[in-house]
Write a structure and sequence with these properties.
With 190 residues, this protein is mainly beta. The chain has a single domain, classed as Electron Transport, Fmn-binding Protein, Chain A (Pnp Oxidase, Chain A, Roll). Helix content is 14%, strand content 37%. The chain is built from four helices and twelve strands, in the order E-E-E-E-E-H-E-H-H-E-E-E-E-H-E-E. Strands 1, 2, 3, 4, 5, 6, 9 and 10 form an eight-stranded antiparallel sheet that branches. The protein has a two-stranded antiparallel sheet with strand order 7-8. A hairpin with a 4-residue loop joins strand 11 and strand 12. The longest helix is centred in the first third of the chain and has 9 residues. The chain is globular and about 55 Å long. The termini are far apart. The relative contact order is 0.21.
């Protein structure tokens, strides 16, 4: 079972996002989206940019909600599959062996197998060009107990998020902690 963390901007650098939606008939759908990330702190928001041609585009417009799960190394094949197949042609949850879970807060599903999920209500739609940016207000972040550190915070090394390499179209993992943010650079201040 996932534990509620409240509305926070918990998303890691260059993530591979698992965008969950329901279609008009209520069928759960999941897609892999590389164009996304945190876009506002207050209210906490995440943005995902999709092409109009994607099945998920219409689902988000219809339901005014989506989830953004963080893809992880353990489920790399499943994460890739939902990005190359279309929800118009396949039940991606069933084919990938993923478990759809209905969000308690928004009209969208998420995959139980991905360890962290952001539940989002659609806040803004911005037509950019080939892609449309959907900005979702993060209503809650849910995470598996196994991905918390001893300090009670999410542990990136336990999540093992996927990072997409846009230049070489590959997936990578994360490495060890290098330094404390907002601290390591203080030695350079005059």
């Amino acid at each position: 079972m996932k534990h509620s963390l409240g509305a926070k901007t918990l998303l890691f650098p260059a993530p591979v996002l698992m965008v969950g939606t329901y279609d008009q008939a209520g069928k759960p759908n999941l897609m892999n989206a590389a164009w996304g990330g945190i876009c506002c702190s207050k209210p906490p928001c995440v943005a995902v940019s999709l092409r109009k041609a994607t099945y998920s585009y219409g689902c988000i417009v219809e339901r005014k909600a989506f989830t953004a799960g963080i893809a992880c190394e353990k489920h790399i094949a499943e994460a890739d599959y939902v990005g190359i197949a279309s929800g118009r042609d396949a039940d991606k949850f069933a084919v990938a062996g993923l478990t759809p879970v209905r969000s308690e807060l928004v009209d969208a599903p998420y995959a139980e197998e991905f360890p962290v999920v952001l539940e989002c209500r659609l806040l803004h739609v911005i037509e950019i060009g080939l892609h449309t940016q959907f900005i979702g207000e993060i209503m809650d972040v849910k995470a598996d107990a196994a991905v918390f550190g001893e300090d009670g915070l999410l542990d990136i090394m336990k999540i093992r998020p996927l990072i997409y390499d846009t230049a070489r179209r590959g997936y990578h993992g994360v490495g060890p902690r290098l330094a404390d943010a907002f601290s390591v650079g203080k030695a350079l201040q005059s």
